[in-house]
Design goal:
Protein name: DegT/DnrJ/EryC1/StrS family aminotransferase
CATH class: Alpha Beta
Organism: Comamonas resistens
Family: Belongs to the DegT/DnrJ/EryC1 family.
GO molecular function: transaminase activity
Bound molecules: pyridoxal-5'-phosphate
Order of helices and strands: HEHEHEHEHEEEEEHHHHHEEEHEHEH
Pfam families: DegT_DnrJ_EryC1
Number of strands: 14
Number of helices: 13
Length: 405
């Protein structure tokens, strides 16, 4: 019997009852309640949500042109900034956490800075205070990129509320999914009004809605232990056989970011699945807690939340291996074997090549720590489908890799 294909992240599986279009309640209201915020604004993707936020901030400070993001993040961030007619500056990371280096950030911030984007990567809670300090000193805004961190909390409240704006992604692989979707939040009512005004131009698109609905249906059908090799395993194997790691990691994005509304049926699906999200995240957090302890016992460097007040979510467990050589050897041997191994992102942003045209203004920024992280990080799926026996197998693979290293 073939082993099941484990998804690269702990996505919440859909149930057939989720697909019933009527009586699910108002998704935006339910999401606001779930996050314990007064209201949320729904968009068609996390990237689209970021673009709405950037457009809103642009109307507030139209003379400012630069956006500062970590140099190791989702390439969609760079595409969104470019599509808004803004210039991206890349901030290098700290060596000990995935946060932006505070000194470097301070040096990058100027009267030109519109926004700084601390990023809650892979569910880990970022240091938003440090970003706020640098941003406030020059009158810039802070947008918390919480695309991978729906449900993460800091000091007991949802991430996304310390900064001026926060956004979450509902894309496949980020937890709760409407196939694609985005959620905007803001602490300040005036900012929420600005976000609404900036979102007013997004229209319903029958073509996009049809496409996304079919894709969501496909996800509901195939995101199951028996079928995932078709939807995920096979395309991954094809990318890997071509040696295309960027495609294998899903880092190959089209330049143009579609912007349209999130349709009713997909909202109903999200609303129903949301009822199970808390329980699912508690289960995966408990699984992560035990596995992180095991990994640490083996001497592995696990990326965790920096303080007890930060309670992230656990789509994956992030490891930093001693060298890129060891990391790449593990990936070559086990990426694509169905055990749910992946890379958060393959490269630091300037090293993709294919995004050079949107990074022109950022190409002088020194990103050596981000490169180091990109070379040594490895993500173990925290899906419940990765059972203890298979996790233990993988643990011994890692131990072996460390010994040989
Ligand atoms: C996925 C992601 C985005 C974009 O979200 P989409 O919903 O995929 O458009 C932005 N930032 C980060 C860090 C992400 O991982």
């Amino acid at each position: 019997m073939r082993e099941i294909t484990v998804p690269p992240t702990a996505g919440l599986p859909l149930q057939s009852a989720d697909l019933w279009p009527w009586g699910a309640g108002n998704f935006a209201q339910l999401m606001a309640g779930w996050l314990a915020v007064p209201e949320v604004q729904l968009q068609c993707s996390g990237t689209s949500a970021l673009m709405v936020a950037l457009r809103a901030l642009k109307t507030l400070k139209p003379q400012r042109r630069e956006v500062i993001a970590p140099a190791y993040t989702c390439p969609l961030v760079a595409l969104a900034v470019a599509q808004c007619g803004l210039q991206l500056r890349l901030c290098d990371l700290r060596s000990d956490t995935l946060d932006m280096d505070a000194e470097r950030l301070q040096a990058l911030c100027s009267e030109q800075t519109l926004a700084v984007l601390p990023t809650h990567l892979c569910g880990r809670v970022a240091d938003v205070e440090a970003a706020l300090q640098s941003a406030r000193a020059v009158g810039a805004y802070v947008i918390e990129d919480a695309a991978q961190a729906l449900g993460a909390r800091s000091d007991g409240v949802s991430v996304g509320l310390k900064g001026d704006v926060g956004f979450f992604s509902l894309a496949v692989g980020k937890g709760l999914s409407t196939f694609e979707g985005g959620v905007l939040i803001a602490r300040d009512p005036a900012m929420r009004a600005a976000l609404k005004a900036a979102g007013r131009t997004t229209r319903f698109s029958p073509w996009w809605e049809l496409r996304r609905s079919v894709e969501l249906l496909g996800y509901a059908l195939l995101y199951r232990p028996r079928w995932l090799h078709l939807a995920y395993g096979k395309p991954l194997a094809a990318s890997l056989s071509r040696g295309d790691w960027v495609e294998a990691a899903g880092d190959d994005f089209d330049d143009h970011i579609p912007q349209h509304s999130l349709g009713r049926w997909r909202q109903a699906v999200g609303a129903r699945a949301l009822r199970r999200l808390h329980h699912f995240q508690r289960t995966t957090a408990e699984q992560a807690r035990m596995r992180v302890a095991q990994l640490k016992d083996c001497g592995l460097d696990v990326v965790t939340d920096a303080t007890p007040a930060a309670q992230g979510v656990w789509p994956v467990i992030l490891l930093r291996l001693p060298s890129q050589r060891i990391r790449d050897a593990v990936m070559r041997a086990h990426w694509g074997d169905g055990s749910g191994l992946s890379l958060p992102f393959v490269h630091a942003l300037p090293d993709y090549g294919r995004y050079g045209h949107v990074l022109a203004s950022a190409c002088d920024d020194d990103v050596s720590q981000a490169r180091d992280w990109a070379g040594r990080l490895l993500a173990i799926s925290n899906s419940p489908w990765l059972d203890d026996a298979r996790f233990a197998q993988f643990l011994s693979v890692l131990e072996g890799a460390l010994l040989q290293g």
